[in-house]
Amino acid sequence: MKMQSKMRAAMMYGPSDIRVEMIDRPAVPEGGFVLKVHSIGLCGSDIRNMTTDSRKGDYPFVYGHEIVGTVNEVSPACTQYKVGDRLYIYPADHCMKCEMCRTGHSEMCENVGDYTNRQGGFADYYAVSAEQVARDSIYRVPENVTLDRASLAEPLSSVYACQENIGVGFGDTLVIIGAGPIGCFHSKLAKLRGAKKVIMIEINDSRLEMAKQFGVDYTINSMKEDPIEAVRRLTDGKGADKVISANPSTQAQQQAIFMAKKTGIVVFFGGVAKGALTELDTNYIHYNGLWIYGHFGANSMQVQKAFELAISDEFEADKFMTHVLPLSQINEGIQLTRTGEAIKVVLHPNEDEDIDR
Q1: Which helix (H) or strand (E) holds 202?
Q2: 311-341 as b/e, with b when 16 or more CB fall inside 10 Å?
Q3: Least confident residue range of 50-54, 225-229, 231-235
Q4: Which pLDDT score, from 0 to 100, does residue 351 have?
Q5: Whole-prediction pTM value?
Q6: Which of 26, 192, 255, 319 is at 20 to 30 A from 215, Cα to Cα?
């Protein structure tokens, strides 16, 4: 069967200039395969990249990294996969040979695949290289699991890793600053791990209201009341066991340390703008024995565990996917996410096909 030579893709030509156009379909890589993309999540980092000059003028470019689909074409040298296989592709393939990988920190792999410069998944097709096949980035999606649900595995992986690393568990009081998709993931996972009290802080009332369905016990609008005083009031003056700043705000990071109890843990989860610096009261950190943890990514085993959780009934992935749109409506999806109307937007490339996703 002759393969199509063209495909649709959401091409970024500059900040907030995203156009769905026809471009060349990727050739099958030697030792790899071409994936037909059926479901792809719209991530906050994608939105940040697509609405700023993220590539310093190096355009056009196709973003998208929460990729799920079916194998469409396979190189003869690739024997692990066949046409029709349903797969989730984790974007950051790890070498598993460097010092970081061998010490259990593959999230800091020194030879990680250059996923920031590969053509991304906001397209009908996505090329998977021989290097990706040989590494730890490909997971089979069971037949009884929807491809949409599997697309949540990538954003969940970092959340899963964070909470495992800081030991969120039975009886904990947890503060989450930011009620976006990641903040809601944190709330749901914390409850699954046994947290007793989850406090969500946000500036958007509609997001706070939506977050309640994911186990949030108390909500605080930090535009309407002092969030530090509110957390102290809800914790009998002690502060929380763990505080996670899951947003791109230096002010949130600055305030987070005053919400933690003595010897508590404060996590800087959300990356802030490049070059932005956060003023911290280091005397307060010192005399209260606080642990400050910068979290990024997930190691190989955590990626696998997060995938297994995302496709399980316990996680209730369908509740997070408030909007499912064709790829042609990617700009609408960006706007829905930025305004807080959407929790998680999932896009459907190959939108003309009537398939079970």
Answers
A1: strand 197-202
A2: beeebebeebbbbebbbebbbebbebbeebe
A3: 50-54
A4: 80
A5: 0.94
A6: 255
Identity of the amino acid at 213: Q
Q: How far apart are CA 309 and CA 347, in angstroms?
A: 21
CA nearest 122: which of 14, 11, 286? 11
Domains of the chain: 6-152+315-348 (3.90.180.10), 157-294 (3.40.50.720)
The SS3 call for residue 9 is strand
Rounded to whole angstroms, how far apart are CA atoms 306 and 353? 29
Q: How far apart are CA 105 and CA 168, in angstroms?
A: 19
User: What is the phi/psi pair of residue 239, to 5°?
Assistant: 100, 170
CA angle 215, 206, 320 (to 5 degrees): 50
Residue closest to 277 by CA, chosen among 240, 249, 317, 250: 250
- Mean pLDDT score of the chain: 95
Q: Are 185 and 156 in contact (CB under 8 A)?
A: yes
